[in-house]
Protein: SAM-dependent MTase RsmB/NOP-type domain-containing protein
Amino acid sequence: MNLPVDFITRTKSLLGDDWVAFVEALNSESPTSIRINNHKAEKLFLDKVLWTESGYYLPQRPSFTFDPLFHAGCYYVQEASSMFIEQAFRQYVVGGNVRILDLCAAPGGKSTLIADVMGESSLLVSNEVIRTRANILAENITKWGNPNTVVTNNDPQQIGKLQGFFDFILVDAPCSGEGMFRKDEGATSEWSIDNVKLCKERQQRILADIWSALKTEGLLLYSTCTYNVDENEENVQWICEELGAEVLPIDVKEGWGVSPSLRDSFPAYRFFPHKTKGEGFFCALLRKTSDEGSLKRRKDKEKTSKSIIPFDCKDYVKDNESFIFYSQKDRWFAFPSLLYNDLTLIKSHLNVISEGICLGEVKGKDFIPDQSLALSTYINAENFTTYDVDWKAAIAYLRKETLLLQDQPKGYILITYRNKPLGFVKNIGNRANNLYPQEWRIRSANIPETEVNII
Ligand code: SAM
Structure:
């Protein structure tokens, strides 16, 4: 690997005697890992990622695109080290009604993890500032299927106006990416000392902008995928001194290979590829000590319509008495009742691009069920005609091809693969119109000859 000279000088002095082992690890193959969706998949009998309950290593990197269960949201392909954030949630966020913000969330690896470990009465706001990336985030959150999530597309400064609103904020900051050199060799060409400095300054701006949205005593998990101290320990120190916080310890087990902070004065957690099976990663957990007022609630205008819910819509959702049902224009949604006030407040301040479960759209006398309902962990599949397809038909469906269904009634049919919902079709007799979202479809035509089933 062609490492920049300045990177070598700086990282050698950081690692000392470990430098040779580190370079050797960078020249070895990067491990492939996945995290299963506990609401959709069973535990696997594979090598476990030690610091999470649902992460596994795969023996090689398969073609995920051609595994239908990947599209069904049964698992997420995620770099192993970053799954460590689960420990901060398990050790400090225990149930209850917790408002969580994942500020820099696209494509959604950490958000899907948080959605799994947070309690059912907690709210997750996943935000991404870049619009195109926010759409990918919304797609991944929809596939994961958790109803108590909202996806927003805002600048940190705008979210900062939600004064004292959040109990927990994850800032997985854009960084110089040194920890990804092995996975993405292109990242080495973008690296420079000047860029490290720019990243550090941008991280501080992001942190300062979002700080007011965290309540006093609230927790902030700061993480990067880079090794240098500038963007890591120095920024943690900066948060403590400039914004007002204390650093909290996270318990780690001896055998995990996690390295400590490079500052004696506070704990932090570092992952190096020669010590742990994963890429480079850094994180530290902070508790806000500075005072924060709380947002004055405006009288929110009721934007949802009072129109009558399409008659069987409620029956599409399991446990429907714990949801509120509402429409926006012709689209119907279900959102956990307990969190609905929070949603209203968020909508009055932020640009929400996806929320809860979108059930479907009324068109004339027809109600067209939505992809978000198909992939929701709360879909009441018993109330739909379902049709389980084989691998070849599943790939055709995900490529948005027209399906021919044998002996099926006319109307909306939920297509499943190995009994996991993939999406809807509208059967019109001689053929079934494919309702899979156009922008999600598999574009590659290089369909493998043999089935791909990863879990
Ligand atoms: N947390 C994500 C995950 O686990 O999948 C990865 C996040 S990535 C390290 C950092 C994200 O920050 C990127 O999606 C990037 O678009 C976003 N970003 C870039 N500049 C930003 C800014 N000024 N404020 C907030 N987010 C920014």
User: Anything to note?
Assistant: The chain has three domains: 5-288, 306-337+347-380, 384-437.
